[in-house]
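Exercise 7. Predict the structure of Glycoside hydrolase family 38 central domain-containing protein from Streptomyces parvus.
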Amino acid sequence: MSATIPSGPAPASDPEATAPRTGTAPECHVVTHVHWDREWYRPFEAFRARLVELASRVCAELDDGRMTSFHLDGQTIVLADVEALRPDLAERLREHARAGRLTLGPWHVLADNQLVSGENLIRNLLTARRWAPGAGTLAGVGYSPDAFGHPADLPRLLRGFGMDTALVWRGAPDGVARFRWRSPDGSEVFAVNQGYHGAEVLWADDSGASTAAERLKAFLATEHARLPEGPWLLMNGGDHLAPTRPGERIREAADGAAATGAALRESTLEEFFGAAREAADARAAHGEPLPVVEGELREPAGYLTFILPGTLSARTYLKQANASAQNLLERWAEPALALHAPGDPILRADLDHAWELLLRNAPHDSLCGCSVDEVHRENAVRYERVHQLGEHVVSRALLAAGLDVRAYGDPAVDHTDLAVLNPHPDSAGGPVEAEILTAPGRHPVAITAPDGTPVPFETETLGIETAFEADLDLLPDSRPALRHRLFLTAPYVSGLGRTVLRVHLGDAPAGDATARTDDRATTIPAPGGGQLSAADDASLTLTRADGTVLPGLGLLTDGGDSGDTYNYDPPLNDTVITPRLVASRSRTSAVRTVLELDAVLDLPVGIAPDRKSRSDRSTAVPVRIEVAQWHGDPLLRWHIWLDNTARDHRLRFHAPTARGADTWTGDGQWSLIERPVRPDLGPLPTERGHEAVCGSAPVQGIGAVGTGTDRTAIIAPGLPEMRALAATETATGADQEIVVTLLRSVGWLSRFDLRSRTTGAGPMLETPEAQCQGPQSFDLALALGEAVATDTGLARRAAAVRTPLRAWQLRPGTTAEPAPGAIRVDGALLAALKPAENGDGLVLRLTNPTPETGEARVHAPADTLLTPVRLDEEPTGQNAVRQGVAQSVWPLAPFTTLTLRIGERP
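Solution. The predicted structure, encoded as tokens:
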């Protein structure tokens, strides 16, 4: 979604009182453009048909001079979309781009840059360069005016691609037209706050010249109030609009503009930014430096400037699918290809295509869940296709490394082997889940490490099936087999390396490998001592060894939601409901203890007809909660399943801390960010066209409250809406809570009658599938105290949860040995390991997301060259290091990303 759709005339300032009256006329740069949502209130194909029409009109006007330039919305994906239907028209667009009349990019798609990972954004910019029609044809401006807020790390990303400017809008500080925007690592760009765009100002319609002149006069007055000396920017165009004859429109408006003391000129974004920076430098030389704005841009700022925070939790299943797909490509497919088959052009093409599909789900109307239902059905299918490709790349790369993981041949009788792979740069062990096939009647009885050491495990028999496998070199084959699920604590595996475990088989499962069930248990041991006990509301109470008590861990609360896909809106008379516990049991094995809770949420079936309260009729929503405590692991792992039969509600998960603070910690793309504790929802607006401040914020997977050993952290990749609640708002009575939204069920794309947003944010269309009816499941980890007392510990725990070790059963007859990784790193987190874009070597990206100084110790093959590069993989100019036998040491300043190209040449 881009433009808002107001339900009446906008409030206006007095043009006569605020019009510029100074000597030299400030310039207003008119940049003719379109903002093109690939899918939103229409499905993709319906929008693409119109895109082809627009491309034809734009090319015709650029051909005959009615337009001198056109900005095609900052994304190269439009070339792909047009090319699929009209290759000749796509080539005309490229010709205009090569001639400088048409600007594209710098993005491949205009992503919601808060919900996707940093690596997703990097692949976005890299993909745009592959689609660019020639060198120098991509726009050099960090163009992102319509994202629903902007992440703290965006200046770092732009600078890493050679851009030092940004055009922003939503979330930028109110009334600040120009500023220096700084990331946590110190990267800085010159930022222009576009302000609410004026798509209609020069629009050709039947309103008459006098009305058009009044629109222009009001626009210039507003810009003069923001920045009296100019220059100003008028983006001539809007959502899915085809502006025509901009030069003629400017000439028609010239007299009216001159009367207000302004000069209009047809321009480009690059020309505007050049003039804006020159003016800012001149003001700075006279003692008026630009203000510095640090961190994320997420402040509601006046009329129609919405950041639409409800999109963080609309259609949660999309966010979960995106996090899973990103993790597969970033942490498994790319590293496997880089380490084991870097020169394979077929697998490289598969990986590029997987990224292309994932990027097509990244625009805000897609990933944010705020489109018509048809759009999101296609999104779900794209995520499935990404997984198909990603897993194929992983399995083929493993095959190149000598690990055949295809289920072909006679199922195992005496033993089978499990290859356990570590995706992290340093040594790691811990929980692993895997499935294996054996001959019917054969069961795991022991697992041993390469040195013969027993490995504790739990086994669960899933049943007989007919296993099928076929491949290019394998005839189709179907064989009866018995499937088992294994839970084991893997021994330490070297960084980016593997170990091979032997699974010994017998006629019956080993007695100590099957879980013991207690059908009436209500308690389990707590990590570090003490115990956890189930309460009547299906939350857990922690009783520590020292006798202190912390109730309310994992409390679920459900309230009404009369909002839409853009904004949560509390009913005027809300009812908050918690579960009632029905049954409790525990399962204990050699590796873990699991507390199983059966509960019911007695929820109103929906919102009342007047939308002011929840319905009087109710539905019993079954909830299954499993809390696993792996022996020796400081984390508690929640798996929550429910069958959602209610509508118009919001379900949240609460985690209290014993001692609160004024801030809470959440992670951005490459930085842990301190945010203020705010009310769940600020004062409701009374003016039309405004939005309430919402206490939620986007995270990549981490939310933490408290300090030191009293810290509580939720780690929940794919559940990006988190917030902290102060003591006056907590559901558990604690000093502070961290809260994550699991589910928001709403039935409208946009509505005009909300209390939290006082006009529409899109067309008022029903979206029944946004109610998210049916089975829903959520996975979270909870960490307390010492394990997450430091930011470094918190970041490492989160990385282990986001990307756990994986295990694959090896094909019978496959011989494999444990192997260390060719590349290992101590002292840093891994962001990326991938083939270099230019095909020369590998790219390794490390991060220090904390405010603490550190260093990375890199072990790479002897005699390779380690060259520092930017995010776009261009050399930084720093000296390369020739890797010797020993490690190389790289300092890591706070919040640093370090990118190295590893190869034979600089």
